[in-house]
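Please go through the protein record below and explain what the tokens say about the fold. Record follows.
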Amino acid sequence: MQPQKIIHPIPPLYDENCRILILGSFPSVKSREAMFFYGHPQNRFWKLMATLFDEPVPQTVDEKSELALSHHIAMWDTIHSCTITGSSDSSIKDVVPNDLSVILDNCKVKRIFCNGATSYRLYMKYIYQSTGIEAVQLPSTSPANAAFDIDRLVGEWQVIKEYL
């Protein structure tokens, strides 16, 4: 598989009531195909959110949007465009960060959480200086993060509820 220069195709998810922002790094191939966040069936993000909020696991884009927004969660990614091979975070090069002001200027975000180390590292490198909002790194919901089963993820991600 060859590296490709790709522009982020998914618009940010937010409304005026959002109080936290969850940032991934860059959408996977499956997420880009689905045109929504965490579209790979093996990614545990939506199962994690459903568990945290004691709701059914959303299946459709509308259900996923509703779950996030009903709990005042905005979503996007740190990267606007990059060169990437497939879905591999470790292959990311030529990063252009997203401008988070589109979200931050239009809602009440109090805390930013990064889904995984790559999102956090890129946020701190490219975006923190412009937002001044320190981010919290949470363990990745990717299936590649085999060290964390769903119960351990739930335990770590509980912190987001303190800001809602």
Notes: DSSP finds six helices and seven strands in the chain. The chain has one domain: 4-163.
